Amino acid sequence: MMRPRLRHALLLFTLPVLMACSQPASVAPAGLHGNPERGRIALMQYACHACHQIPGITGAKVFVGPRLTGLAERKYIAGRLPVNPDNLVAWIRDPQKIDPLTAMPNLQVTQEHALDMTAYLLTLGHQP
Amino acid sequence: MTPDKKRTIWKTIVATVAVLGVAGLGGAYLFMESGRYNVGTTSQHWQPVHTLLEHGLLKSVRYQARNIEAPSLTAPQMIASGAAVYRARCVQCHGAPGVAQDDLGKSMQPVPGPLVDVTQRWKARELYWITRHGISMTGMPAWEFHLRDDEIWSVVAFLMHMAALSPQDYASLARAEPVK
User: Which ipTM was obtained for this model?
Assistant: First the structure.
């Protein structure tokens, strides 16, 4: 049996942790429909991390495309489109339609997977 | 300290290291046998493991390629035939400026890197070595028995040139017929 004082101390320590856990892990901005965790795997399965460093995805230190951190806080995608879920989906699915000179190729990302990627990328900055 | 005491201390150190070593190996063996390690490619390495393996790869290639002498790689004809080989053998997994890799290249783990940045990482002789011998456990095949030596060097010439290409440049180079 634990000594009462030790038990109290433990409880005091674990309570805030438990409370933090019960809150949603991330606050998604309005207009997001995808699933962030599926998006994380989709980003990997479409080899996005071959050119971009992406938090939460294991990979090399590449500098071919920009680092995909804090996208939610940025103003423009590729210096052209205001950052919002619809524009990010459009860019991911067909970047050369938006900027014919971009070196980023069309990776044949489906609408569903682009939504999931967008959900992951736009919640990144909001995670605790 | 008496010699006896000294000996006891050394014995304790050696015994502790031996026991820990055996326990570690045993634990690793049991973990493997349990099948808990996920070999699927949708589950990634830990970043420290990835970084360590990548570092080992870099050191190995540097060492293995140290005595290779690269020929001159600047002739436009050589670069053009390299582009043709690249289009036929490399772009499937590595992509090119403005061109995506095929699905098989997208989903590999480790992911085949884009090669537009190779000059930041490798010297010409190292690229030749990698292309010729491949890299084990990465999916990178050895081309020694499938490409002629001059074809391998022409690919290297093209790679050294690729960072300077826009998507449009690549498209026109790769469209050209291979120079015989």
Answer: 0.83
Query: What is the value of pTM for the model shown?
Result: 0.81
Query: Contact A54/A48 with Cβ under 8 angstroms?
Result: yes
Nearest to B100 among A63, A102, A105 (CB): A105
Cβ pair A42, A35 in contact under 8 A: no
The CA distance from A48 to B63, in Å, is 30
What pLDDT digit, counting tens, does each position of A20-56 carry?
Answer: 444 444 445 556 789 999 999 999 999 999 999 999 9
Residues of A in contact with B111 (CB under 8 A): 44, 47, 49-50, 59
Structure tokens at B174: 């790769």
CA separation, residue A63 to residues A52, A60, A85, B20 (Å): 7, 9, 24, 42
Determine, for residues A108 and B100 on separate chains, whether the beta-carbon distance falls below 8 Å.
yes
DSSP B80-92: HHHHHHHHHHTHH
Residue with token string 């989906």:
A89
pLDDT value at residue B178: 53
What is the mean predicted confidence (pLDDT) over B120-143?
A: 96
Label residues A65-80 b or e (16+ Cβ within 10 Å = b).
beebeebbeeeebeee
